[in-house]
Amino acid sequence: MYEQKVNSVSIPLLAFLVFWLTALFISIGLFAPRNPIVVVTLLVSALSVSGAILLILEMYTPYAGLIRISDTPLRSALAQLGQ
After folding, report:
1. Which residues contact 71 (CB under 8 A, 6 or more apart)?
2. pLDDT tens per residue, the chain (83 residues)?
3. Helix, strand or coil for residue 14?
4. Distance (Å, whole) CA 71 – CA 63
5. Helices 11-31/36-58 angle, 10° precision
6. Would you say the pTM of this structure is higher than 0.90?
7. Whole-angstrom distance, CA of residue 71 vs CA of residue 64
8. Is the Cβ–Cβ distance between 47 and 27 less than 8 Å?
9. Helix (H) or strand (E) holding 15
10. In angstroms, rounded to a whole number, what is the distance separating the alpha carbons of residues 72 and 50?
11. Does residue 35 sit in helix, strand or coil?
12. What is the helix (H) or strand (E) element at residue 58, kind and residue range?
């Protein structure tokens, strides 16, 4: 839990990644034909990439956030150690 206090996410790297992915999807969208299949495919792809980035960012804080693990075993071990 002490290690969670340090934010190890590189903000410039994250900003560059989002910029690069945005440019990639815009360029694909410009050159793709306009039909419902392409629009749905781009939407699903954008949602999957954004979900992957969200999961990566959630791994930095396992005891808080949308997806969290229980801290009960850790608290139980600390109670047995007398701390």
Report:
1. 1, 63
2. 555 566 677 889 889 999 999 999 999 999 999 899 999 999 999 999 999 999 988 888 777 778 878 878 888 888 888 86
3. helix
4. 7
5. 170
6. no
7. 10
8. no
9. helix 11-31
10. 31
11. coil
12. helix 36-58
Whole-number Å distance between alpha carbons of 51 and 36: 22
Quick one: which H or E segment has residue 25?
helix 11-31
DSSP letter assigned to residue 55: H
Residue type, 59: M
Amino acid in position 68:
R
Backbone angles phi, psi at 29, to 5 degrees: -65, -30
Residue type, 10: S
DSSP state of 9: -
